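Notebook B, p. 112. Complex prediction, attempt 2.
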Amino acid sequence: MDRFEFPHLEFVARFARNRGALLGAGLILLVALMAVLAPLLYPTDPLRIVGAPELWPGEDPDFPLGTDSLGRDILAMIVHGARATLLIGLCASAVATLIGVSVGAVAGYFGGWVDEILMRAAELFQTIPNLIFVLTIVVILGSTLSNIVIAIGIVSWTSIARLTRAEFLTLRDREFVQACRAMGMGNGRIIVGEILPNALPPVIVLSSLVVAGAILFESAVSFLGLGDPNLASWGRLVGDGRLLIRSSWYICAIPGVAIMVTVLCLNLIGDGLNDALNPKLRDR
Amino acid sequence: MILDVRDLSTTLFTRRGEMKAVDGLSLSVDAGETVALVGESGCGKSLSALSIMRLLPDPPARIVAGEVRLNGRNVVGVPEETMLDIRGKEIGMIFQDPMSSLNPVATIEKQITEVLTTHGELRAKAARARTRELLELVGMPDATRRLEAYPHQLSGGMCQRVMIAMAIACSPSVLIADEPTTALDVTVQAQVLALLKRLQADRGMAMIFITHDLGVVAETADRVVVMYAGRKVEEAPVDDLFEAPLHPYTAGLIAATPIPGAERAARLADIPGMVPPLSDLPRGCAFAPRCPKVMERCRRERPQLTEPAAGRSVACFAAEKG
C-alpha cells in the first residue's frame, strides 16, 4: 500500500516531473497574483490618462512599459488586464465545461435517440465558424463581461461534450456500473456519483486548454472593438494600438506577448495535467 | 417461496432476428435454500439472472413472457422506479469479477455507504458506522484501515468481500451470485464460499448460485438447475444429481469434472462440440448434435420437461425411455 498512501502527493509528483508544466504553472501563478493584486498596485482606473502619449518603455521611470497613444500607463493596463483576461478565460471555460459535461454525460449514458439529438445539435454548433458565432452573439446580447463569457462558453462546449460522451460510452457498460444498478441506484445517482468521477481526468485536461482558447477568443473580440468598453483586457490593448503599429509597435507588442505567454503556459499546464491524470502514461 | 420464477422467457431482438436467450425457465428458491444454476458459457445463466433483476439491456433484450414472483409480488412489468427500490433491498447480486465490479475512483467506505443511503435507511453518519460493521461481518482483515482504501489496493478476495458487504447491506431476502468465485484463487474461493454460506445461514437468505464449476455446486447447493441453450434441461436435489444424472448433458458435465487423486492416465472426458448459437438452434433437442444417446426422435421434436421422481425433472426422450 505504501506507494499509494498519499494519492494527492503522487499527483503533484507526476505533474512536477513535466518541467514545462511546472514552468507554465509558475508563470500562471505570477499572472494570477498580478491579477489579484491589481487594485493594490494601481488603485486608480487604469484607463485614466496619466502622462504624455506614446512614451517608449524605459523612457520615463514612472511608466516602465511606456504609455499608449492617449497617454495611459501600459503597465497599469497590463496588470488590470490580467484580471479581465483570466476572469473571462476561467469563467468561459467553466460555462463550456458545464454545458459540455451535462450534454455529453446524458448523451453517452442514455444513448439511442437522446444521443442522436444531442450530438446532431452539437454538430450544428460545430459547423458555424467559431469567431463569427462569438461576434454574432456578442453583437446581439451586447458587449458586457458576462455576455462575452456566455458567448465563448456557447461556442466552446462541443469538444468537451464529445469527449465526455466518449468516456461515458465506454464507462456505462463497465461492470461496476451494472453492480450499482443491481444495488438499486437510479440513473442520476449513477451518472453523477459513479461514472462522472471516472470520466473527469481527460475532461479536466481539455478544460484547461479551453481556458487558453477562451482567452484567445476574448482577445479577438476585444481587438475588433467589440469587447466590454469598461474593461482593460489585453486584446483591447492590442486593438487600441494597432493604428500606431508602424511607429509605436510596443503598444501592440507588450499585451500581445502577455497573451502569448499566458496561452502558452495554459497549454503547458494542460500537458502536465495530462501526464498526471492519464493512467496510461503513468509508468512512462 | 421467496423467489418463484415461472416460464420466464427473454428474447434478444437483433438485426439477425429474434433469439430466445431464456426459454420458459421455471425455478423457485425458498428461504435459506441455495439453488445452483449450472451450464456452459453462453447457455443463458447470466441472462436469466439479469432477467430476474430486470437489469437486461433493452434493447436488444426483453422479457417476453413469464413471471418473477419475489416475496409474492410479480416484478415483471412493475415500473422502473419500483425496481430501484426492490434492487439491493429485496434482491441483491454479486458479480463474477470483483476487481472490475467496484468503482475504481471511490473508497471502499464511500461505496458501501452509498448503498446504505441509496435506500434511505440510514443517514450519512450512521451509515459510516454500519459500513465498518459490515466489513467486519464479511471478514475483512483490518476493517477500519480498509475503509479508506481504493479497490486497486485490495486483493481479488478482499474486493469480493466488499462486493458481498454491499450486496447484503440492506438485508435482501434473495441473493444472486453470478460466478462469484470464478475469478479467485482456489484457496480464496473456499473462504468466499464459506462466507456466503455463513451469511446465508445467519440471515436465512435465499440464494441463486450461478456457476459452471460442479465442485462448487456440490459444496454449496441444495438443488441444481441445469441449463442448456436457454432452457432448463434438468432439475434435481444436489445429491441425486451427482449420483444419478438423468440428462446426458448433465452426465457429460459431471464426467468432465476432474477428480483430485484419480488416475491421471485416462484422458479427461469432454462433451464434443459446442453450445449451438442461439440464432441457429436445431429443430429438435438443442443438445442432440452432441448427445451420445441421440435417437431419431430427438432431431425431430423438442423434449418437454417431465417429472420422473418427486423433486426431479428432466427434458430428454432417452431419460424418459429409461
